[in-house]
Amino acid sequence: MNQKNNYYVTLIAALFACTGFTLGLVGGAYNFSLSRTITATKSFLFGRTSQAPLSYDFTAELNLTDEAIASIVRPTSAEQFQNLRKTLIQHIWNTPYLPYNEMPREIRSVKDVRWQDMENLEKIDEVIVEIRYSIESISYHFVPKKRLNKLLIFHQGHDGDFIINKETIHYYLKKGFDVIAFSMPLMSRNKPKNNWILTPDFGPIFIPDRLSFGTALHKYIPLLSSSEFNPVQFFFHPVVVTLNYLLDRHQYEMVAMVGLSGGGWTTAILPALDTRIRFSFQIAGSLPFYLRSVRPIKDLGDYEQYSIPLYKIANYLELYLLSSLGKDRIHVQILNGMDPCCFSQSGAKQYGRILPQLMEEMELPGDFRLYMDNTHSDHIISQYSRDLMDTIFDTAKTSKP
Questions:
Q1: Pairing outcome for strands 135-144 and 330-336
Q2: For residue 61, which phi and psi values (nearest 5 degrees)?
């Protein structure tokens, strides 16, 4: 009997060892995090609970005073912020101005059955912008039947196609907004043809399927850097060029932008560069570095969130202020307080209080606001966030970009 029990114990131990070895191989090959996989599985089976009470402030570990946070912001006047914007544009495009004269390569009407059930949809135009190395950005312009003459730029995160956020796109289409929806570089339709990129210094590079490698795709982007081209353009250039096209054809009374996750990161920075975007809402999209380095995150994020030299020009707090800066402009950061993915950092409330104070002290026009969304425990754009956007749209003055 003991021999039989020992046999079963040995068998179970061998099975666990094989399973661990297999997961290790898969994690190494496909850039999966075993701990995140286990956490996600537990969340799916048992429901997620917050890693710590929502009232716990992780910045207590850093013991940062308000003065220390305020000192991270280096410009002290509107003029210095304007110069900072010019320096950023020069860094990204190698010119002192945004490419306002550039237009998309192609516009074509499409029939996509996944979207045809949306209320108030007149048509879908596919907008194609070619950036560099035959890499394209393909966005959808959802044109409403009954129009408000307002434009919403929607930017999807690392999960892939913006169909994932059909609910939010449909929500604003029903209201009468024109909606232009983007995916991130190399994601979904934005993958290079035949999955190959010819880099200037390293030869042909194969870009794997996103479903296998996830956010690791953006780790390939630095290979495309050259003295003539800054690859961070892949994240911003398509939106600027598409906005050129749309504003050339429609005199929108309002341009707003909303993004989730990686799209939220894009929404945190692009309005700092392009002042035509009046309202911007980054949702679960970014945090300053000092908060990325402490619990519960301890992760600097994807390539574009930490390794781009632009952060030496303007850090996150400065970028938030630049995205807010301007007459009647508003930049809103929404963090999901119980987000199972990222940016569930209650310590953000400290700079959320300090940045508006700095704007007032420096007499900067514009408005920065931070909100914690504790109405759910998902990595999503919630109804709370949409209601908040609606309130800001309804109460703000109307002015053309």
A1: unpaired
A2: -65, -30
